[in-house]
Write a structure and sequence with these properties.
2 copies of one chain form a homodimer. By secondary structure, chain A is mainly alpha-helical. Chain A is built from 5 helices and 3 strands. Chain A has a 3-stranded antiparallel beta sheet with strand order 1-3-2. At the A-B interface, helix 1, helix 2, strand 1, strand 3 and helix 5 of A face helix 1, helix 2, strand 1, strand 3 and helix 5 of B. The structure holds a DNA duplex.
DNA sequence: GTTGTTCTCAACCTTTTGGTTGACAACTGG
DNA sequence: CCAGTTGTCAACCAAAAGGTTGAGAACAAC
């Protein structure tokens, strides 16, 4: 059920990990905050009513998905958004969107060509 | 933990639901298959070594995320990809990608302007 | 060096997720 | 009508997700 390699310390990750990471609203909020600029764990945790530890875990999830890196700065960790990874998803999504549109275009053309009354569907329905 | 309204029968859904739905590789495979063309539940289940019931559940998840609709055709259900919903995600992603890039551009400009040696970070570090 | 701040680790708990099997509803086709 | 196919519903189970609290490591600052 898993797809690629798991990565321990914040390198590029699998599609599953990226999607999973962004499936949580808290984590999306963190990403939104980081799109404005880097922030420490404490700063990121402040707006939420959950514990600092919980937010720390969220950041770890984002880190393992490759969406974020942590930088040790004194006693704090500065969290930084790695925006390029988002492109992984857009690539996947757009590929499918495009394929579906092409399919639809072909279907339209086909229906325009032969005005039969055929109630069957696109994929070959066997037996 | 949740964001918007839950929907029972396949209307537009929340970002969380869409991301969550696509976080599973089996479900992404189903979407890939459907980008080629509509298919019945059985056809969709065939390539996987899990039970038909498991795939049926996956399809339900996709349906509640608004990614897919089911159409009763005789005794089978024809599953159809709703590709537009994918745009929801690309919109969100691209917004953040863009914001992060802008931020980076501003930071570069700033660093080019004043060649100080400042070890502090982007977000205001208080005391 | 002691005190305070920032963050992570570890143990634990509850809910959700993805899977199973078994029963059965709904429709097809002899 | 009876048998077979297609899919869902229900109960159940193990593992993962998201949360909590309690310690404690690492560093800052006085």
């Amino acid at each position: 059920m898993d797809d690629g390699m798991r990565n321990g310390t914040g390198d590029a990750a699998t599609l599953s990990q990226v999607f999973q990471a962004l499936a949580d609203p808290t984590r999306r909020d963190i990403v939104s905050r980081l799109a404005i600029g880097d922030a420490t764990v404490g700063e990121l945790a402040a707006p939420f009513d959950v514990s600092l530890q919980a937010v720390s875990k969220h950041i770890t999830v984002l880190e393992q998905a490759g969406l974020v890196t942590k930088d040790k700065h004194g006693q704090r960790r500065l969290v930084h958004l790695e925006a390029e990874v988002l492109g992984l998803m857009t690539a996947w999504i757009e590929r499918h969107q495009q394929r579906a549109e092409e399919r639809l275009a072909r279907l339209d053309a086909l229906l325009a060509e032969m005005p039969h009354d055929d109630d069957s569907a696109t994929a070959e329905p066997r037996t």
